[in-house]
Design a protein that fits this description.
By secondary structure, chain A is of the alpha+beta class. The first copy, chain A, has 16 helices and 29 strands. In chain A, strand 11 and strand 12 form a beta hairpin. The radius of gyration of chain A is 30 Å and the shape is globular.
Chain lengths: 588, 588
């Protein structure tokens, strides 16, 4: 440490929000170069390389082959798959000196597909699993939390190529198993959840989330433990149709000054009591929410979403459902363009039944056929009661947009849901034939006929993993790395004024290194013991060895960074004891 | 090879010029993604990683510390050093979604300087040597020969930081020694030459060139072997002033129809014989060449260069001398703007003596004081004879722009020069204080005063090395890798119809791998022996082992890829013999 390019900071950096991000900067692992763009200092680079090595080993072990594509890519393949447009402002676009359009790769489906097309031509060539560990670029609107959501970041992306669906399912399963091994080795709490397939197209998809209150993703788990999904991927089953024959005919009532659900429920209970005597609740009302979609090509389209009045439209679920379009607010000027919309009293009439608005109308999946509602009558101060879905109105389709709540029934029919937050660390995905079709990847099948290849796409956020693990393992005093990715096996602190201390510490470092351990050696001559101990706690190497005052009595101290447990061991036993601490499995 | 993502090609790719580039594509090492942008297939990636590992080991061994900067960088630091402008169209510039200017890093002096400034503040912190192995971007006007001159490429760049010149000299020397170790291990012929410091500013500088007829760089070596330089860096010593007192007064003569040196010499000898009876030669004439410079900021400036009539202005030497401006042709419209220039008869009068043109005029360094010349008289059909430099005309300065020829005197005064071509593989460079000054990198010295840090900058073209080594080691039948960077230690070909052959080959592969060797195993069941042998020759692993017909007699064949030598060894000896072939040093 007397020569290491490292300076720890006592103060939190101004631009860091999360504890892990603050510590990574303070402990000298990373530095910000631009918003969402980070430099790796020596300690950080070691952790990054350790994560990469684990990912590489397990990908190789499953038979995937490593290659490496450029980050600077031509426009044409991304044009062929429409992603040049679909990615919108998230794509870094540039022109070269000849004015040719290029991009910085956000993910490489196109390039892998074209390369397999270039090399392979027969079903006999398949299956093949290919991967790279490579720098990617996305111009995030809100780069966040250091490495957690960066604009330049390192990903492992892999792709499977198969002739049939069974092959894809098996490649998917092989990736799933490799990912479990990787995330187990990385040493943090994670959960595998059903995922929304989003803009990628395709079908089956799961995410590996690091469980963290700082996560951007909300996920649900059922109380039985059998169901887990990203909140965007919770597909509430549509209830079976109910018999509405006893529901009275729909009737419009005056409900002055009831532009909100609360005011409506109060007015309904006061002035229009229910036939069966039960009170009206927000759950009996149908709320129609308008949003303005912006499609990737820039065109705008209004959309109406009907949800039960006791629920909100969940922004992320809506976003996932309408992707690649982006939902935005339906503003006053938009209302002005649609005078048939009575703000606060919008109903399925103008949206669904007579289509007077011309606006696409989707009903939340929880709204079954035969259900009766109190909802807007498309006139200020009026609502319609007992409006029955399927009898009195229909919509253009179904959407999964209402918010999901703790205690909701699990979509698998067993137990209820609990909610938590997580950081997306990995994503596995049965992509299907979308890219192969767009780019013409076909091979001859057993009958000599051309068949389109089916693909899987699998990602791990490698630089994000460093941040997520830091976040998930830190404590009040600093970073606290899992052994396999720690920048060193041992942090050896030599402290004292006696030259014998440093002489012995030098020897001990050499002996530990000859045992194959990596040692971060604090040999700084004029730094106080307090500063050295604080730095060791901040840097977060799991085993701290102190060579100091005890040496006169023939002992050194071994300290567990996580538990804080310390013990004195005899100098003669020091190497054996430290090795046992670092590799308990080898000595057990 | 039955599952490897590899397909060799029999045909040369259409866009490849050089033999090595053709073979790297044909043998399945790389594929073009865009002009000057390449993808690494599995075999290519292995070679690249082997080169990286050698570079990393030697950089670590010299005490340099690895970190990693982003490729996507903010404009401001490059603005501060003026490189945002100086790099001109070679820089990939882009804007993010907020319209903020960014760039793709062509080299990282700025970022390293700022990070040292961020972390260090005292002379006690220095010296420090930092490096990264990272992807860089330059929008080359003419991307060339695959990996040799790419627009996305991998470089090791390192930087030294010292408080004084002695420290810089010592860091430079340490890098020089590490580079020698690296290039020795990479296993190809190279030469270390003096280099021009070009746009980087600074002083001492050397290049490591791979000797190759396909190189873009021309270099000279003296016949004594003591002097070697890139042709741009040859500084011809200015001759001592000679006594011109016996030279007759300058006189203008009619020399009609002599716009070229040949016609001028012929006319002079015919009509104006020399006083001393010797014939006029081209070497007695002074040619004044006009070029139009374009400065990085886009402004244009005419420049006149005077060279002896028997020499040409060397485009690369000129370019190096006027950098960061770029020289271009002086066109007819430019002549129209300077009517005082009599095309074909331009002389030092209008350029040098009376400065009527206002054009900057530089004389080649070979033109000494007191030398007499036949040169243009600034009037069509007229030349001036016996015009003496220093007596009759002067210029605005000196330039090293005349071409260098085989047999020229060596600038060190010993022997003459020979010319050859090379590929720039490495560059070491005493940068000095340019970047530290521009970015304010100062530390407190021993007296507590702020002092500006002095820097060195050192680069190795890692991806280029793969191409250069391929180019330098190939033969008529394929690639031919040096051992340390070969994609595998052994290429094992199993061939025949007998299952016993493949069974034994499987075993042998396992045994070789357990000895720590990497084996490229051609286990393809239905491929002919001829195709397998051709592929092995093309792929270029140094040791080829054939398990085939000989197996019945209890032998396998070991073949040296480079020499073609083959020998049969007994099955019982096979592992030992192959290991001895791959690691002769370990068994000698």
């Amino acid at each position: 440490m007397s020569t290491l390019f490292l300076r720890t900071l006592r103060e939190d950096p101004a631009d860091a929000e999360l504890p892990g991000h603050k510590l990574l900067v303070r402990a000298g692992y990373i530095r910000r170069a631009a918003p969402g763009v980070y430099s790796w200092l020596p300690l950080g680079l070691r952790v990054l390389r350790n994560v990469e090595a684990i990912v590489r080993e397990e990908m190789d072990a499953m038979g995937a082959q490593e290659l490496s594509f450029p980050a600077l890519l031509p426009r044409e393949p991304y044009e062929a798959t429409n992603r040049w447009t679909e990615y919108g402002p998230n794509l870094f676009r540039l022109q070269d000196r000849k004015g040719v359009d290029m991009l910085l790769g956000p993910t490489h489906e196109e390039m892998f597909t074209l390369t397999v097309k270039d090399l392979f031509s027969s079903y006999k060539d398949l299956p093949v699993n290919l991967y790279q560990i490579q720098t990617k670029y996305r111009d995030e609107a809100r780069p966040r939390a250091g490495l957690l959501r960066g604009r330049e970041f390192i990903m492992k992306d892999s792709y499977s190529f198969d002739v049939d669906d069974a092959g894809l399912a098996s490649a998917y399963q092989a990736h799933r198993e490799a990912y479990i091994k990787i995330f187990d080795r990385l040493g943090f709490d994670y959960v595998i959840v059903h995922a929304d397939s989003g803009a990628m197209g395709g079908s089956a998809s799961e995410e590996f989330l690091a469980i963290s209150p700082h996560g951007e993703d909300t996920f649900v788990r059922s109380t039985t433990g059998e169901y887990a999904a990203n909140v965007e991927a919770v597909y509430v089953p549509t209830p079976a149709a109910v018999d509405a024959s006893t529901v009275p005919a729909a009737a419009v009532h005056d409900t002055p000054d009831t532009p909100t659900i609360e005011t409506l429920v109060a007015s309904a209970n006061a002035n229009h009591p229910r036939e069966d005597g039960r009170a009206w609740t927000a759950a009996d009302t149908l709320k129609n929410v308008l949003v303005m979609l912006t499609h990737p090509d820039g065109t705008r389209e209004p959309l109406a979403v009907g949800v039960p009045g006791d629920r909100e439209v969940d922004a992320k679920r809506l976003e996932a459902q309408v992707s690649p379009a982006a939902p935005g607010a339906f503003e006053d000027k938009d209302f002005a363009a649609y005078p048939m919309l009575a703000k606060g009293y919008i109903g399925p009439g103008v949206l669904g039944s007579d289509k007077a608005s011309g606006i696409r109308y989707l009903l939340d999946a929880s709204i079954g056929e035969g259900s009766a509602w109190v909802t807007g009558a498309d006139e200020h101060g009026k609502h319609v009661f007992n409006l029955v879905h399927g009898r009195d109105f229909t919509a253009d389709g179904v959407i999964h947009a209402a918010d999901i709540r703790e205690g909701d029934a699990s979509p698998d029919g067993n137990g209820t849901l609990t909610l938590a937050r997580g950081i997306e660390m990995g994503h596995i995905f049965q992509l299907g034939r979308k890219y192969a079709e767009a780019l013409g990847l076909q091979v001859l099948d057993q009958n000599g006929k051309l068949t389109t290849v089916t693909m899987g796409s699998y990602g791990i956020g490698v630089s994000r993993a460093v941040a997520a693990i830091a976040e998930g393992t830190l404590d009040e005093i600093g970073l606290c790395w899992p052994r396999e990715i720690s920048p060193a096996d041992v942090h050896l602190v030599a402290t004292g004024k006696d030259q014998a201390i440093f002489d012995y510490a030098d020897t001990l470092v050499g002996e530990l290194e000859s045992q194959g351990l990596t040692v971060l050696y604090d040999d700084r001559p004029k730094v106080s013991p307090g500063v050295k101990f604080k730095d060791a706690e901040l840097v977060g190497v799991p085993t701290i060895v102190v060579v100091g005052r005890g040496l006169e009595q023939g002992t050194v101290e071994i300290k567990d960074r996580r538990t804080g447990e310390r013990r004195e061991v005899a100098v003669a036993e020091a190497v054996r004891e430290v090795v046992a601490e670092v590799r308990p499995e080898a000595t057990a």
